[in-house]
Write a structure and sequence with these properties.
By secondary structure, the protein is an alpha+beta fold. It has two domains: about 110 residues, Hypothetical protein ph0010, domain 1 (Glycoprotein, Type 4 Pilin, 2-Layer Sandwich); about 80 residues, Dna Ligase, domain 1, CATH 3.30.1490.150. It is about 30% helix and about 30% strand. It contains six helices and six strands. The chain has a six-stranded antiparallel β-sheet. α1 crosses α2. The longest helix is centred in the N-terminal third of the chain and has 16 residues. The radius of gyration is 17 Å and the shape is elongated. It starts with a helix and ends with a helix. This is AMME syndrome candidate protein 1 protein. Pfam families: AMMECR1. It comes from Linnemannia exigua. InterPro entries: AMMECR1, AMMECR1_dom_sf, AMMECR1_domain, AMMECR1_N.
């Protein structure tokens, strides 16, 4: 994992705005499950970030095509936010998370805040399978306990009913770790 991955995501976004093809990266194209996160910063630092888009894939993808695809998908198609606009470039921070070390949890609390990302599977009241995930840094950044993170993740996944212990015991949890890098737009410009 390196900042080169984040620079390439910025390249993808800027190339999209400029209407030109993205330049091929120099790093290898190993395959990983990955997420691209766009945030904004008020002061040009990576503190006090405001989420602007975050989408990824749990299927291993070649880094070249995967980062290009998800840099744009997370910038323009995260339904929680309006698409990123060119005027936002100077305030953007890009984070790339390569997901590793997937393990089945014994129960919904079998993970560590700040160390593991969590992916849960559950059934809604109609018996439909639903899933949701938080990357490893989310619970820690939010100051959540494991229980608070699971409740928030269930709500993110669309579960609106009361959460009983019986329901929680039926949740299937997979924990994972990530290798993450992030860079500001200014760091990207300095790398050119």
């Amino acid at each position: 994992m390196s900042k080169e991955h984040c620079y390439y995501c910025f390249d993808s976004l800027v190339s999209h705005f400029d209407g030109r093809p993205v330049t091929s990266p120099t790093f290898d194209s190993s395959s990983f499950p990955l997420f691209v996160t766009w945030s904004t910063t008020e002061d040009g630092s990576t503190r006090n970030l405001r989420l602007r888009g975050c989408i990824g894939n749990f299927g291993a993808m070649p880094l070249h095509s995967g980062l290009n695809e998800y840099a744009l998908t997370s910038a323009f198609k995260d339904g929680r936010f309006p698409p990123i606009d060119r005027k936002e470039l100077t305030s953007l921070v890009c984070g790339v998370s390569l997901l590793v070390e997937f393990e089945d949890g014994d129960n919904y609390l079998d993970w560590e805040v700040g160390r593991h990302g969590i992916w849960i599977e559950f059934k809604d009241t109609r018996g439909r399978k639903k899933t949701a995930t938080y990357l490893p840094e989310v619970a820690k950044e939010q100051g959540w306990s494991k229980e608070q993170a699971i409740e928030s993740l269930l709500r993110k996944g669309g579960y609106r009913e009361a959460i009983s212990q019986e329901f929680l015991d039926a949740v299937i949890l997979t924990r994972y770790q990530s290798r993450k890098a992030q860079v500001t737009y200014q760091e990207y410009l300095d790398s050119l």
